[in-house]
Amino acid sequence: MPNGFWDRILWVDLNTGVVEVRSLGEKAWRSYIGGSGLATRIFADLGGEASDPLGPDNPLIFMTGPLTGTQTPMAGRHQVVTKSPLTGIFGEADAGGAFGHTLKRAGYDGIVFLGQSAEPVYLLINEERAELRPAEDLWGLDVYETDERLRASLGSAYVTAAIGPAGEKLVRLAGIICDGRHARANARCGVGAVMGSKKLKAIAVNGNKRCPVAREDELRESVAKGARYLAANTKMMRAYGTAGGLQAMEALGDVPIQNWRMGLWNEGTAKLSGQRMAETILTGRYYCRGCVIGCGREVEIKEGKYAGVKGAGPEYESIATLGTLCLVDDLEAVAAANEFCNRYGLDTISTGSAIAFAMELYEHGLLTTQDTGGLELNWGNADALVELVRQIGEKRGLGELLGRGVRAAAEEIGGLALEFAVHTKGLEFPAHDPRAYNSVGLGYATSNRGACHLQGFTHQFEKAVTMPEIGFPEIQDRFGLERKGELVARAQDLMCLMDSLKLCKFSLGGGLKVTHMVEWLNLVTGWSMSIEEFLLAGERIFNLKRVLNVKCGVSRKDDTLPPRILTLKRAEGGAATNLPPLNQLLSEYYAVRGWDEFGRPQSETLQRLGLA
Amino acid sequence: MPNGFWDRILWVDLNTGVVEVRSLGEKAWRSYIGGSGLATRIFADLGGEASDPLGPDNPLIFMTGPLTGTQTPMAGRHQVVTKSPLTGIFGEADAGGAFGHTLKRAGYDGIVFLGQSAEPVYLLINEERAELRPAEDLWGLDVYETDERLRASLGSAYVTAAIGPAGEKLVRLAGIICDGRHARANARCGVGAVMGSKKLKAIAVNGNKRCPVAREDELRESVAKGARYLAANTKMMRAYGTAGGLQAMEALGDVPIQNWRMGLWNEGTAKLSGQRMAETILTGRYYCRGCVIGCGREVEIKEGKYAGVKGAGPEYESIATLGTLCLVDDLEAVAAANEFCNRYGLDTISTGSAIAFAMELYEHGLLTTQDTGGLELNWGNADALVELVRQIGEKRGLGELLGRGVRAAAEEIGGLALEFAVHTKGLEFPAHDPRAYNSVGLGYATSNRGACHLQGFTHQFEKAVTMPEIGFPEIQDRFGLERKGELVARAQDLMCLMDSLKLCKFSLGGGLKVTHMVEWLNLVTGWSMSIEEFLLAGERIFNLKRVLNVKCGVSRKDDTLPPRILTLKRAEGGAATNLPPLNQLLSEYYAVRGWDEFGRPQSETLQRLGLA
Where does A9-205 sit in CATH, by number? Predict the structure, then answer.
């Protein structure tokens, strides 16, 4: 085996309790890199796409990348791959923090869970020792409590990934939260509900092994230079977190407001910015392992009705979905809602989206105080926001309905409710508006896990980032039409690679190029991979996910956006009147991808990628 | 009461067998004109939109217009309004022929059927005498047989409207066929199934009353001039029927081929043209009552496997949906399929669409010979075409599924089948491609009965027709974007008026303008209606239908087109690569209409139209 991998994957059968170590061989790693790619390959080999998402046959796979656990900066991440109970198709969720780094340092690249335990368990990993332990006493605890309880008994060197009550109760919006109070979430696609269905409360890991690196001196030199450069170019994010750009993004028309209806909310948005947070509740910052930015916010609220909030503060996506999307301009309430999401183990994006959806239902009388148990769901009602997070997390009251996600809730209610459900393929939109960047709508429409900015990240290529190695040496026109199909396809392939290397995408804003990624991968592994081979692996990974989705029934009809986004021009803001030209772009995108008219990879394409 | 109306509507309670005459008063006629408008007003007052389409509470309304039965040319038509069992929303279907003319001449403006008979009946109307009669002996007969049997017993002066076995068996694609072998069909929206659910086999009418006209001499002079002009400008249609333009339309990219995939099919299309028909199976032509064009084709096939076909030949829509859409280039087979549609009482458009849909399922292995009872549904298989028409008409074999319409069939099969179902709001597309005229997609998306060219007819405004009175004194650019929302709204309002006057839309190609319509209406009725009041009535009628649909759950999400039409660029033909810019146009259209962001008429709009 090359360096960079242990080629040791924990294989945990929750039906029998047997824990083994399995190896895949170098070819698998070189073809799928690690992280998202390798986990998807394993998922596909296990036939996960045919499983009932909450049944025993759905694999739940945690996977680090080749750079994770090495001295490479911003690579301390891990991916979770599973079939999504929210969308019914391929699901995955990425997280930073310390969990992935520590897992790798324990001597494992990843973990595959199969089956379902009869009783609650957690997985303990202490380097060579890996065993399932009873978790009766943890079941019912929230994520922060679980983390604290485990580390109190096992030792503070342990790092955890856990579900809260939401995952236990199979809430479709449940995520997996790593690192306790310094929360980093594998948030999306209901991966926490899958973990709950397996009665797996947590993973606790301790590891200090040095991960073997092929050309250590060269790597050290290269990453030192890279780290300095990355740090120098990300000062704003360090100072103000991911929400430091909130107002600048609003000016571009990028921020979703009032369930995607408004284009500007000047004073309201200002109250939620990273700058405002720094002036008020911010107490510090925290870093993912190996990070040079430190976008994590430590916050504390000492007084008032949200007193007691202490730990991870809301980042941009959470501020936008729990805040601007619901017209809630109370930063403390948003911080409290964010903390409850972390404690219950909920995806803030989907949770905030479901609440904004409910507020619009309430505005139109499709929900009344009879349905809400007396709660007045007026736009901007901060108390209602926080209460609904709790109800979703506890699967009670209106939370039972909202916790199924906006697609299912809208289908249940019917009529106008279907107009308010902003999702693609069942996944609620993240907080970047496709009307602000012409490539973003195409990206959301074709992202394999449903609407996702991270799987295309092209808003950056139309704003700040160039990437000559994939054919885009200039920043692209965000309102243009030229080469958008190509941009989205090539950016998605690259994002597959970053999700497989497990590199943080904020490194792109710091100036990281494909050349650096390949250089670091080769220095770590000892390979001499070319940029072409590297990019081909990204295309392979993206197409493998698409093949899985095609097996789940996905086709052209699903590569779409909701009517509000496709047809409703906003009246104001930096992207006023622009609509995503999805229809014009889709066929070009399919052609670039080598897909047929229904969006299925053609056999020549699969052949070329080694997926036949 | 003014002239032009009797203000006598037959009110038939099929539960009790009671037949009455009711009047509405002049205000209703002046506000809703007649035909489609007045029938919709009655339908709304009866709460028809809340009914089960195949239950006793669904009204089935036949209605003539103020010009019907007078010497006005091209007004011998009638409308059927009901709730559609195919689409689940407001439904209507228009027909020419002699039925409406004769009904008016019997001294009635229309007929409202309510309830359901326990046993098969038909309605006999002989001027003052109107009664339900047993129809046990007619039940099970096809339309031609029913017409012949009735006229043999009642006298050849009688004119019939009847359902065939399809309507009896509640096939959702069933229509009502008038005039027997000189078939004219109230085809769309499953109106024949509603008639079948009422156990109403037929209406037979005899009438020779002179319809009172206010200013007879002036009308005679005006229509004589108009008729000469209309006749002079429609020679091509008289010579070759509605399919005389088939090849010219194909050159524009207007003709749907192979379930909307191909843009050109040169030799194939040539074999189906009106010119080819004239050289082969054509034996004569026939006219609707009062028509000066005579687009009706009499055909006869004397030899070969389709020997025995005799009567109405296929018109353009039928040739395109049973022919080009299925890649069937055998004109005799298309004529036979058309005759079976008439005999079974089926909508040729929806039937041809369902068969093309099935052929695409077969191409992709979603239907096999196991499902088809051995039938090989290859594109262009003429025998399969004819056999499937029979199966749909008899609700047997694969016909049971296809007879539910492409939306329901695709939902039943799922997966890729949903890509092949070309409909809006559950109504299969007529044979004009929205990719060939930028306004047409918007028209199909917003037409009140689902995808419909007749309710907007804007392909003509982007090709040949000008209409200064509604603000379009020039032919519009078919690939342009300017004022398309306004064009579609104003053209839809005008089409509502023509469907209420019961004027044939082919008169537009002959040069008929709004000024003539208003002049004739005033000469007939004695009113002094202004063009403004007239056009406002059109807007009122369109909005009333929309209000009914909103009550059925229709909103912005439903004002759309299928993915194939929205996103698939055709490779060849006169509209190659063009896509309907629906998303760009929808909000403009709503604004022109005075609708809110969800497509609901705003209260000021309803107020302005007297619909509050």
Answer: 3.60.9.10
